[in-house]
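CATEGORY: protein folding

GOAL: derive structure tokens
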Amino acid sequence: MTAISGINGHLQRTYISQGEHAIEAGRERVIATLLGSCVSACLWDPARGIGGMNHVLFTDDSRNAVDVFGHGVNGMELLINGLIRQGADRFNLQAKVFGGACMIQGLSDAGVRNGEFVIDFLARERIQHVGGDLGGDKARRLEFWPGTGRARVKIVDNKVPIVVPNPVVHNEIELF
């Protein structure tokens, strides 16, 4: 956790990565992550000022897709149950959903399916989905204020130049 200066005092930032979740309370807390095709569900109870965020790959095309799907369901349940244990009222929860980009054109629609999965999950659980930012072809930096439900997204340019070094030739043997 890294602390940064904020307008209203001192913000405390918690970073999460794939497979993790965090639950915080108060206006000075921020949860942050970087998303590609993964999805983050940001849930909070506005009446109690407590919320949390996960970072999960819900579906994929690999042979272990069933296991990954199970981790996605588990990631949602861990977040919801953790919020309830910390004092949130399940019936007050609201959600914003982010991520689900198609990072490599033509390779997979996993990002779209990840977004659809979490939206469907929220509907089945009767948790109100009030916003977010899904799809596209760029990564996102996400910051979420769990005490208020505020979220900020910065689109990250995924066009990373690929540098191919000139091959080194010694005695007509190409080294690579």
Remarks:
- Residues 33 and 142 are 5 Å apart (CA to CA).
- The longest helix spans residues 65-85.
- The chain is about 20% helix and 40% strand.
- Helices lie at 65-85, 110-124.
